[in-house]
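Hi everyone,

Forwarding the result from last night's run.
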Amino acid sequence: MIAFWNVLEFGVFLFAILLTAIFMLSKCFFLSAYRVGWIMMFANVIYETLFKKFKWNRGCIDAVMLPGLTLLWFLIAGPVWAMAMSLVLSMAWIVTLRIDQRWRTGEIAHQDSRYTGRVPIPVPRMVVNIRGPILERNKILELGDWPVGSSESFEILILNPSSIVPQFPMEVTVETDSPGAKVTMDGSFKGICPDPAQYQTIPFKITSTERSKEPVMITVRVSHCDTVWIRKLRLRSVFSLDGASIQSAQIRRWKGGARAGFAWRGDQDLYDPATFQSEQGLRHALGLSYRFRLPSTLYISGALSLNQDDHKAFCDHFGWDRRTEEIPGFIKFLCDKVTLQNELEFPMDPDRKFAMEIGNHMYVHLGTHTGAAEGNSWKSHAWIGDGRYPWQQEGHADSFTEQRDNAIKNAEEILETLGVKVTSWGVPGRTCDSQTSKAVEAAGIEFGTDTNASAFINVFHLVPPHHPEGCEKLVEITKKYPGDPDNAWKIAMLKYWAQAARRREQVFLLMAHHHLLLYEGCACTNMLNEFFYYILGDCQGDYYIATVSSLGKYWQSVMSPKNKCIYVTVSDDNTVTVENKGREKMEELPLEIKLNDGREFMRLVDVDPGQSIQVNLTD
């Protein structure tokens, strides 16, 4: 009996430790920047699973766990331990609740501390990046080792994604106190701070002037009101070319030298102004996109978004009024007010205020209530094989043919109504099987998202771009969980994956619907505001940010083991040849050169289609 109670007590102790760890770790947002952040992410996955499976609200779970854990520790270790544990848990909860509240407000500015209590002087929250051939982007931006006489171009990008009009000028300086390098700054900058949603670039050049075994530091300083943004660039050394030879050269990173790629994708299942899947909803989301000059990809399901007849039949069957008569106006808005372009990059500067990529989301959106159609006897959440549709090839009812024809029909609908030839595809819900990748490729799609990804993969794995099994050209880019971030805990999880993508030099694909769940409030919009500041600013410009098609095309051209068109070779005379066998010009290719003595540096090169360029150490 004594042994039984000992085992029971030990089991209760382990249970208390486990619950306490889940409660605490889910709130350790600071871990998101580190590899060990997976334990924070995993703790939050448990909360998310309880909500999805049982609809248990996170706040209610914590409200029950806090007194429950206090009582449990009282029974295990006595009142002192219980009070101490309660205090620690309470403080952790309060801190995260305050962070959640701050991010929910969509913070875009702060009061200038020099005028506090006297004059309202809001200072816009800016994004500042340094763009150029940078090897490592951490607290110090590492430039590597340069030969004497090297000269490279850089630029400072300053973006005002807020809605705050600046009231004071901005000061920008680039300086070095070392004789090993000289800084030349473009004199066109007049000190004007960018207006809301505007940006400006300030070019400067660094030239290595004389040998230096000691590191050469270059300081970039951007000052606006009481805010000072400082970044240090470091040349590890400046060396003579005597005896130097090239050991290797490669292009393995994303455009501009970024370590990772980022894209924002959303989707629209049907036209429905009640859930902001409408012009009003798109104006809201694309306004956010415009403020950050950050492109996005919207996957549209054509049957209920663009086809009035199908939309009316759907509404009539269920007795809903989703305003079928507004669809022509919605199409006109997309055609007249939005730049619909498959390839867009940050900072985008289209001919219209609004811009995005349109992608294929299947004609009939199976897997949700919008999958109901006459062809499947109006079955809600219909799946592959549950019906026969007018657009299906006669005599073929297999999964491959149905999915291929569904994608083809949607591409035709989008081309007819919007004049866009789609190149990317987004999974409707989680409706996919072993045939999806091949079917999507057969439909003429070049880039797919989640053609072969399960929920487990979305949650726990960072999958690199790849060619799915059985596909020759289709590029799969898999999205990351959680989608539609509407609280700070989800943002902390996404920040962990953002840093993981940088470390692994992969792609981070964010899933956030363009209607941004506005019918549930603006929390998702404001959380994205916080996350975009993080991706653009806190990640040091280490992301190539673009549409899904742009990311897919770059990976296809530069990194694909099957279809790449960029080749790098090193010859005996210390010359690196970069050849472009493709049909389009490739710009800002990050050529990393490593010498026989371990020194390394990067150069950004442009190569015209069908051409090659030579890079020498003396260039």
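The chain has a mean pLDDT of 93.

Cheers,
N.
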